[in-house]
Amino acid sequence: MSELVRISFDSERPTVSGRDLHETLQVKTPYDKWFPRMCHYGFVEGLDFSTFLSESNGGRPAIEHQLTMDMAKEICMIQRSAIGRKCRQYFLDLEKAWNSPEAIMARALQFADSQLALMRSKNTELADTVAIQNQQIVEMKPKVSYYDVVLNCKDLITISVIAKDFGKSARWMNHYLHDKKIQFKQGDIWLLYQKYAEKGYTSTKTHNYAGSDGEQHIKPHTYWTQKGRLFIYDLLKADGIIPLIEQEMEEAYV
């Protein structure tokens, strides 16, 4: 079906722009005078049409209207013109296609797909939140039960700082710890496996930031304690990887 009048499918039912219909019907009366006159035929705002302002391009925003198919068909009949009859038939054919079993099924499947995608997204967010909260709970347990010199250390550091000690990148270090089955990635954050999460190696904190949508969001970050730093040191040293400072000391005695 060729498009005689542009149709909007943004709402639950197809609608048509009053200004587009006015142009297609080739009405000579200006739109801002013609549309109020059409409303005298008993059309009700909020039921038969909606009103909004167009986006301004530097000038004054124009008043626009979005019409239901029923209103558009009646306006076509009121015009008593060949183009009016043609537009009315076009709307009738469109409604027939819209209400066909195939179209109804297609919309139902599309809605089901969108709901499934939404549920999957929410489940992923929930899994991320639960994993982070579980690690935070585990990290807090030692502080509640006893004081440990290392756990009480205030100096939390990022994996980037530790990696730099060994002349490595944060990416390299994260993948090294992942290959060693020390940590896993949950969403955008690296978390320790349960075996190591209870040892006080890390501290997971959240930070607020303003998103591009203007809303405040929360992003978690994993920091390493000094105890965790020594753990990584022992792990790397066992594989023959030592910090740069120790490499320099060895070279000095050669």
From TrEMBL:
Q: GO molecular-function annotation terms?
A: DNA binding
Q: In what residue span(s) does the Antirepressor protein C-terminal domain sit?
A: 135-237
Domain AntA/AntB antirepressor spans what residues?
16-81
Could you tell me what this protein is called? Phage antirepressor Ant
Organism whose genome encodes this protein:
Acetobacterium wieringae
